[in-house]
Structure formats: C-alpha cells, structure tokens
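Can't attach files on this board, so I'm pasting raw text. These are the components:
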Amino acid sequence: MGSFIINGGNRLCGNICVHGAKNSVLPVLAATVLSGERSVIYGCPELTDVDSTIKILRYLGCRIRREGGSIEVDSSGMTGDSIPDVLMREMRSSVIFLGAILARTGRAEMTYPGGCELGPRPIDLHLSALRSMGAEITERGGRMICETVGLKGADIDLSIPSVGATENIMLAATAAEGTTRIFNAAREPEIYDLQQFLNRAGARISGAGGPYIEIEGGAKLHAAEHSIIPDRIVTATYMCAVAAAGGEVLLENVCPRHVATVTSVLREAGCRIGETGDRLHISSERRLNAVHPVRTMPYPGFPTDAQSPVMAVMATADGATVFIENIFENRYRHVGELMRMGADIRTEGRVAVVFGVPRLHGAEVEATDLRGGAALIIAALGAEGRTVIRRAKHIERGYEQIEKALGGIGADIEFQEG
Ligand code: EPZ
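---
Top answer:
Structure tokens for the assembled complex are below.
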C-alpha cells in the first residue's frame, strides 16, 4: 500500500513538467486493438492504471514495448476477446475495452466493472448504446457477454454526457456499417484526443470536443502514432499545492484552456496566475479568501476531479466556500480525513460547506480514492507538522512520482513502502 510522509510549511518554488493525461492514454491504448497493426503512443505517464491497461492488452495477445513515455502496441497477434475479473477489478475504467474488443472481434466478455470509491459506477448508457448498434448483451454469473454479427451505425442520445460511454461508442462505431451520430456527447479534451488518434489510424470522426460527434464506420484502421495531451487534473492538482502551501511555481507542458475553470476559482481566491503558451505560472503569497460556490459539471464546467484538491485549498481560506458535487454520488470521502487535520467542513448530500480555519495540523490520514488522496497531500503541504497519508496506492494510480515532483520544488515529502 505505501504511505506518503509530509512535513508541512515549506514554500514551493521551481518548475514542474506535467505528464500525459491518464484519462486520455487509457482509451487511446484500448483503441490500439482496433487496427491489428503496430501503433506507438508517446507521452504516456508511468501510472499503475497504465500498468493495468498494459496487462489487459498483453492478456488479449498484444505485444507491448515500453520505453520511457513511449508505448508500442502490436495488436496483430490479438486472439482474446475476454478480460478476467482480476484484471477488471484492478481498474474500473477497463470497461473502455468493451467497444474496442467488440469492434475488433465481434465478441467481448468481461465482468461488470462494479463500483469504486466514488459510489456505484453504472454502465447502462454504454450497454444501451451498444445494443442500439446491434450488440447482443447477456449476463451470466456477473460476467457480461457482448456479441454481434455486425455492428450498425445508429443515432445515440446520451441522457448524461458520459465520458466512458462516449468513448465506447466512438470505438465501436469505427467498425460499424454506416454512420453513428452521438447527441449530448461528453466534451472533455480526452474525447478530442481519442478522435485525433483514431483519425490518424484511418477513422472518419468529426465533432469531438462538442456535444455532437459523427463517426463514419467501416474504414479499415491502420497503425498510427500519437502523443497524449497533458493531464489537466494533474495540472490543477499542482496549482492547488502552490495555492495551499504558498510559493511561486512554473508548470510546463500545460493546456491552460483545459484548466480555465480551476484557474478562475484560484484567481478569485487570491492566487496570481499567468499563462504563456503551454506554460502556466502560479504564485500565492498570502492567506487566500473563500470563493463563490463551486459546482462540478461536465466539461467545460468545473471538473469533478478537481473538487477535492480545491476543497483542500479552501480549508484554510478566509471565509466559507460551498461545493456542490453534481457528477458522482459519493465524492466527499476525503472530508473526514481533512477534518482529522483540523478542517471544518459540513456535508449534506451533494453539498459541502468548508469553513476556512487559519491553519491545518499534521495527522495520520488515509487516501480514500485517487483525487481524495491528492487533496490530503495538498492539505499536508500547508499544514503545521507531520502528516502520514496511508493507502498511497490510490494516489499512484493517477500521479507519476508525485513525491519527486513536489520534492523538486521544495516540499518535504517522502514515500514509504509497507
Ligand atoms: C471519467 O469517468 C473519468 N475517468 C473520471 O476520472 C471522471 O471523473 C469522469 O469521467 C467525469 O469527468 C476516466 O476517464 C478513466 P462518466 P467515467 O461516465 O467515464 C453516470 C479520475 O479521477 N453514468 O462521465 O466513468 C456516472 O455514474 C476519474 O481520473 C451513468 O449513470 O465518468 C456519473 O455519475 C474519476 N451511466 C456520471 O454519469 C453510465 O452508463 C458521469 O460518469 C455511465 C455513467
């Protein structure tokens, strides 16, 4: 499991180069099974979720070569169409393989990805969309078996702009006969990145990044190379670290537009933030003030994944900040852990009210999930004294060597095995 040990109070100064986006590299790696050829993906972060994805690709029969941030996937030898439960449980977003395997082989078998720390993670939108494209989906003993004699293009209206459902539909639609049109598609930058990779591989997709995506099916896909976009949530996390601990940091390999809603909240709180090209400069020299209510929304609204990092900042702001979590049912599990550090927070369903206190104090806490764990690191950096954050494996899923990145700008942080 491992723990992070942090002695708070150091100002953060220096540069961090942000790594590639976890939520882009996962669907793009899944998409490499479509061509049956050799694709190379650059800018892949070293994360346990990427390791899990590679295990699935190997299990399916793909050959993988990994050199630093580059991952080469040769899916010509792919023979499998099913993912065992042990691999499905390693990473909830394995469901993204459903559309890709179905498109490649006409059959896909896997267990339901099940819930996670954020609450139930239904996949009803994924399944109803694939059924409308001609997939027969049956369930036997907790495993779902999807089969098709041939996928057909369809018009799909998503009741929720689901990121995963949008991605699964795009992947399946590349092999469908005819055109698939997605209405109310998710608009996250990672969807656009997936479109870019697929079109480089010969697909004919347009509209990603907007609410309407059109996929002309039937093209034979081929090998492609692609560089992953920067991780906007990692960017937001490091911005929050500076906001909470104080200091002045330059973040490189950033898409400022992708974090615009987080930037405006931290500016309102009193941070100074400048943007030039793919670099973002943030400084925080005084106690921050509370901000207007923070409502999480689908992109381009305020990202749910940045809710807990920003909450950790507001825990010591002057005044009270209201958070409304509109995306996930159970995304306040980090609140109890922040309160162990002296935070004063009240939650009621989807609403949390954070009453800023002058300073947090170190404590023994536990990471409850990926972004909740990141929030604890942020809180510990500004807290007085020593904090031990157990269950660090949650954090390693989405942050590449976070202790090295933060240590490099002056944080007193170390990782401890066991
Ligand atoms: C993706 O999850 C991200 N994960 C999440 O990031 C992110 O928080 C989320 O999108 C929202 O932006 C990856 O990309 C790997 P959704 P996903 O389908 O696709 C409901 C992180 O920390 N829903 O957009 O699972 C669902 O319950 C992770 O990096 C259905 O009801 O999210 C949720 O309330 C956490 N039925 C809402 O929609 C469905 O069939 C949004 O979920 C699908 C989703």
